[in-house]
Amino acid sequence: MTTEAILNRSYTLEKEQIPPTVVEQIDDAERAELSEKIKAQLKQQNAVIVAHYYTEPDLQILTDESGGTVSDSLEMARFGNESKAEKLIVCGVKFMGETAKILNPEKRVFMPDLEANCSLDLGCPANEFSDFCDAHPDHVVVVYANTSAAVKARADWMVTSGSAVDVIKHLSKEGKKIIWAPDKYLGDYVQKETGADMLIWQAACIVHEEFKGQELETLRQHHPQAKVLVHPESPSSVIEQADMVGSTTGIIKAVADMDAKEFIIATDKGIFHKINEAAPDKILIEAPTAGKSATCISCAHCPWMAMNSLRKLERVLETGENEIFVEAAVIKKAKGSIQRLLDFTQDQNKLAGDA
Ligand code: 13P
Ligand code: SF4
Fold first, then answer.
1. Which of 31, 116, 139, 189 could be cross-linked to 307 through a Cys-Cys bond (beta carbons 3.0 to 4.6 Å apart)?
2. Res 272 pLDDT > 60
3. Sheet of 47-52, strand order
4. Could you please report the per-residue DSSP string of 260-318?
5. What integer best gives the mean pLDDT of the chain?
6. Rounded Cα gap, residues 153 and 80, in angstroms
7. Mean of the pLDDT values across residues 21-32?
8. What is the pLDDT of residues 57-85, one digit of tens each?
């Protein structure tokens, strides 16, 4: 396919490719019983849970109580890397499990549901992406964390939402031309922020893509004091209205730090659990996902994140099912792009600390 064809092709998924968001319903007695069983198994197997903020509150509470971490994609990778546990149980989506395995090939990595994927990962097939990179050998290849191990193996850098602008700024300063994949909205935002020379792949997150600029404007009129916090996987019409654009960790921190009482949040609503913990007295309002005549697909909750549940987690620990494997050759190549980011953020944190 030509460059023009790739850049004009939409890698947005068809409706049929997106599962419905189904959240497991359990009563208090079963929740308590499962939580106790899981904690005992974790101890016995020297295992730890690494969960994303978009997973269900039940899972987040158990993760915290059992000494695991609930965090963003970058911190999930870091934590798994530093943990002394022999097994990592990744509650999130496939690329997070693969990243954990790539960074820790000596550890066994499991996930509650191996079908938990991501529209960005699905929207960037490794073979097509590799052909595209081959056609532009003078470009540095930067991919978002939300990609398969094979795509990361083809990249020079992996970045996350919390690090993308800094990395691209750094590369742009060095005069580098960049291939960016797969999120078109995040790519567009980063390009505007940095002025970098970027070829941008055209996939999208089905959750953030549904936030609507016009409806947000109307909502803001009803809540004139509210601050608007937006994840950069959202469309530009939404980002343009933001008081703050940032990663999931950035959004939680902003609610806690900002003086305002009310916040309109444009990201997966799974994050409300951690925001409520960090800032219990603040009022949180979901950003609108659909116009009057439309129906939302995800309704601001990722269908793949919702596949993680206590019952499935307990089953994985009980049976040893759902282990993540990545080919050694892919691990070797993909590790380079991830490690480059971890080293970069460590240097940046050090510089910030020295300043
Ligand atoms: P971060 O948690 O890194 O901001 O990413 C959000 C996301 O979409 C994960 O799927
Ligand atoms: Fe992928 Fe979007 Fe779900 Fe995150 S919220 S896992 S980017 S589909």
1. 116
2. yes
3. 69-71, 47-52, 87-91, 108-110
4. -SEEEEES-GGGHHHHHHH-TTSEEEEPP-S-TT---SSTTS-TTGGG--HHHHHHHHH
5. 95
6. 19
7. 95
8. 999 999 999 999 999 988 898 888 889 99
Ligand lying closest to the C-alpha of residue 305: 2
- Closest by CA to 183, choosing from 161, 209, 156, 201, is 201
Nearest CA to ligand 1 atom 6: 248
DSSP secondary structure letters along 155-188: -SEEE-TTTHHHHHHHHHHTT-EEEEESBHHHHH
* Residue showing tokens 């913990």: 277
Map out the domains of the chain with their CATH numbers. 17-116+305-324 (3.40.50.10800), 120-204+333-354 (3.40.50.10800), 208-286 (3.40.50.10800)
Angle at 20 between CA 182 and CA 61, to 5 degrees: 85
Query: Locate tokens 């953030």: which residue?
Result: 208
Q: Residue 11, SS3?
A: coil
93 with 75: CB under 8 angstroms? no
Residue among 211, 225, 302 at smallest CA distance from 265: 211
Is this model's pTM higher than 0.85 or not?
Answer: yes
Q: What is the pLDDT of residue 355?
A: 65
Residue 161: C-alpha distances to residues 29, 78, 99, 203, 297 (Å): 38, 15, 15, 15, 23
Residue with CA at minimum distance from ligand 2 atom 8: 118
User: Which pair of tokens denotes residue 168?
Assistant: 């691209």
Please name the residue whose Cα sits nearest to atom 2 of ligand 2: 205
Distance CA 70, CA 99 (A): 16
